[in-house]
Amino acid sequence: MPTASGIDPLDAALLALLAEEPRPGVLECSRRLGVARGTVQARLDRLRANGVIRSSAPQLDPAALGYPVTAFATLEISQGQGADVRAHLASVPEVLELHTITGQGDMLCRIVARSNADLQRVIDRVVGFDGIVRASTAIALENPVPFRVLPLVEQAAGD
């Protein structure tokens, strides 16, 4: 039975299976989970419709693509320049994510570079826009807990 989050243990098991092996097919999922193919298809359709599953795209590793340096830049922007700054940052391939934030700064972006020296080029491109007043950058040394969602799935299924 679905919980308040709409995720039940079968959904959690299906999502864990897809996270481990993203493209097993509906029939293989039904076999591994011990449920009917139609049940798996209905669950997948509902999870996609509700936005729980947003993509079946492969996870790509920037380091393997030649961008081993990751940094986070906190940006302060000029009043009323948010839309223009967002458009500018979206045009920079090395900007992987952008979040508007509270606290120190207005935006936080995750950027990648080919080297520490190349990071300077990327930062110059990021801040080389009139709407950006100031930037503070921190280089990530390691990523001991990579982006993950499965612990939330397990918690949501137990709520």
From TrEMBL:
Keywords: DNA-binding, Transcription, Transcription regulation. Pfam families: AsnC_trans_reg (PF01037), HTH_AsnC-type (PF13404). PANTHER family: LEUCINE-RESPONSIVE REGULATORY PROTEIN, TRANSCRIPTIONAL REGULATOR AZLB. InterPro entries: AsnC-type_HTH_dom, Dimeric_a/b-barrel, Tscrpt_reg_AsnC-like, Tscrpt_reg_AsnC/Lrp_C, WH-like_DNA-bd_sf, WH_DNA-bd_sf. Residues 7-68 form the HTH asnC-type domain. The keyword Iron-sulfur does not apply. It comes from Streptacidiphilus jeojiensis. Gene3D superfamilies: 3.30.70.920, Winged helix-like DNA-binding domain superfamily/Winged helix DNA-binding domain. PROSITE patterns: HTH_ASNC_2. This is Lrp/AsnC family transcriptional regulator.
